[in-house]
UniProtKB/TrEMBL annotation:
A Pfam entry, by short name: ABC2_membrane_3
UniProt-listed InterPro entries: ABC2_TM, ABCA
Keywords of the record: Membrane, Transmembrane, Transmembrane helix
Subcellular location: Membrane
Residues spanning the membrane: 36-54, 346-369, 389-417, 429-451, 458-479
GO cellular component terms listed in the entry, alphabetical order: membrane
Membrane topology: Multi-pass membrane protein
Name used for this protein in its record: ABC-2 type transporter transmembrane domain-containing protein
Length: 487
């Protein structure tokens, strides 16, 4: 009798009955549906309120370009003038800079307490200095070298580490190899090395007595006095580039069992270089690059490392007076800007994941409810086949999900969330369509594991919450990191 009823029931009749059943179920869960709809509305409004509060804080005068009242025309009237000369370090980044300051190029010199010394994890190389120099802050800074022509490498090293200071006040700082242990900025507007309490170093093979002096670095209409201190540099030869790789890794805090930092100034592999061919690979310190994917990437002081060894090669060929001067580094000119933090884009991915995944427990509990209440069996007894059931249920949840996402995108765009307005809507539609299809399919699969609605609902919302946290705190880091392979 059941078979004959199933055969006589048309697909249209089964679809109509199933849609009526679903609508009845949704009406019974009116409060749950309203909470589902209001949840993204609440999050969008919360992001807008937080963004406005952040903007109010960033609009304070202490975070804008510094200004002063000056009588420029000599008529006794005070005029408001703004610029970097009236700004502190928190304000200067927003100032107009038609001609940004020029800074001497620097090496990333390890701090005295972190310079490479002989330790238990570097016993295979006994040419590092003894660690007793750490207590007196007199440890030399080390450059590792390798290549197929050792005599060439030794000659280049002698040119890189002069025996006496080559500082010449007439040339300024262009012909002096300077370095700093300070952190690097994200732009060249200000060079922290000249505003920190740390000294600026210059590299010598041997530091003589009274080898410390001061220089004046022009910044806008003012000058910054800075102490220049000698640091001994040494080069160590290695037979293979793999040895340098191992030593660099062992000098990383997590690369050795002692948790000790043993930093190398730079590394050079001259490969097949000779007097007629120049080919080199440069290792550099990227400690302060901060390539985490969530904050702006800091600059690395690698340009001076390349210029340093290139000058050594030119001096080998053309004589010690030959130099390729590296005058300065500077930022591009910029207009006056406002300090802004796009709070909605910062928290948007986490909130967005939570919102779009809200549909997963809804679909899951609806399917488990029919199983728990034996509705599937009853519908099958009345002629509903498996094919029409799954097809109609899938189409129904897909329609509900499309309406939900449409309302979410429209409301988010109306309130001005850049998460929606800055991305092309056609691309968003394709992404949402694929995502909600995968979500419905996953709910159909997971529903087979549950027989109780409450258990399914708890697990479903735990999945929603955990997925957002894992996605924002773990996978986002890899996907946005520049080191993540694109292919």
């Amino acid at each position: 009798m059941a078979d004959s009823t199933d055969g006589s029931s048309s697909f249209r009749t089964q679809a109509n009955a199933l849609f009526r059943k679903n609508l009845t179920f949704q009406r019974r869960n009116f409060k749950t549906n309203m909470r589902l709809i209001l949840f993204p509305v609440f999050l969008c409004l919360l992001l807008v309120v937080l963004q406005n509060l952040v903007n109010i804080e960033l609009d304070k005068a202490s975070l804008k370009c510094g200004c002063s009242c000056i009588d420029q025309d000599g008529n006794g009237e005070c005029e408001r003038v703004c610029g970097i000369e009236y700004s502190d370090l928190d304000q200067v980044g927003t100032c107009s800079m038609p001609s940004p300051p020029e800074w001497p190029p620097l090496l990333q010199v390890p701090a005295p307490q972190y310079r490479a010394v002989r330790t238990d994890h570097l016993l295979s190389f006994g040419d590092f200095p003894n660690d007793s120099c750490t207590s007196t802050a007199s440890c030399p800074t080390t450059v590792l070298m390798t290549g197929n022509n050792r005599s060439l490498g030794e000659s280049l090293a002698r040119n890189m580490f002069p025996s006496s200071s080559n500082f010449n006040s007439s040339n300024g700082l262009a012909d002096v190899v300077l370095g700093s242990a300070s952190e690097t900025p994200v732009s060249n507007i200000l060079e922290p090395a000249f505003f920190s309490s740390l000294p600026v170093y210059y590299i010598q093979s041997q530091c003589q007595a009274n080898s410390t002096f001061s220089i004046s670095v022009p910044v806008a209409s003012t000058k910054v006095e800075k102490e220049i201190r000698c640091v001994q540099g040494q080069h160590l030869w290695r037979n293979r580039s793999s040895d340098i790789n191992n030593e660099l890794y062992a000098g990383y805090k997590r690369g050795n069992s002692e948790k000790k930092i043993n930093e190398i100034l730079a590394g050079y592999d001259f490969l097949n270089s000779n007097v007629s061919s120049y080919d080199v690979i440069v290792w550099y310190n990227s400690t302060y690059k901060n390539d985490s994917g969530n904050i702006p990437i800091g600059l690395v002081r690698v340009r001076r490392s390349i210029n340093w060894v290139s000058n050594a090669f030119l001096q080998l060929l053309l004589g010690p007076s030959t130099q390729m001067l590296f005058d300065f580094v500077k930022e591009m000119p910029k207009p006056e800007t406002e300090r802004r933090l796009d709070f909605s884009s910062l928290l948007g991915p986490l909130f967005f994941t939570w919102v779009i995944l809200q549909l997963f427990p809804i679909v899951l509990t609806a399917l488990v409810y029919e199983k728990q209440q034996n509705l599937r069996i009853m519908m099958k007894m009345h002629g509903l086949g498996n094919g029409p059931y799954w097809m109609i249920s899938y189409a129904y949840f897909l329609a509900i999900s499309l309406v939900y996402m449409f309302c979410f995108v429209v409301f988010g765009s109306v309130v001005g969330l850049k998460f929606f307005t800055l991305n092309d809507y056609s691309i968003q539609f394709v992404f949402y369509f694929i995502y909600i299809n995968l979500q419905i399919s996953l709910a159909f699969l997971v529903a087979a594991l549950f027989y109780n609605v409450k258990t399914a609902a708890v697990v479903g919302y735990i999945i929603v919450f955990a997925t957002g946290l894992v996605g924002a705190g773990f996978f986002q880091f890899f996907l946005e990191a520049t080191s993540f392979p694109s292919k």
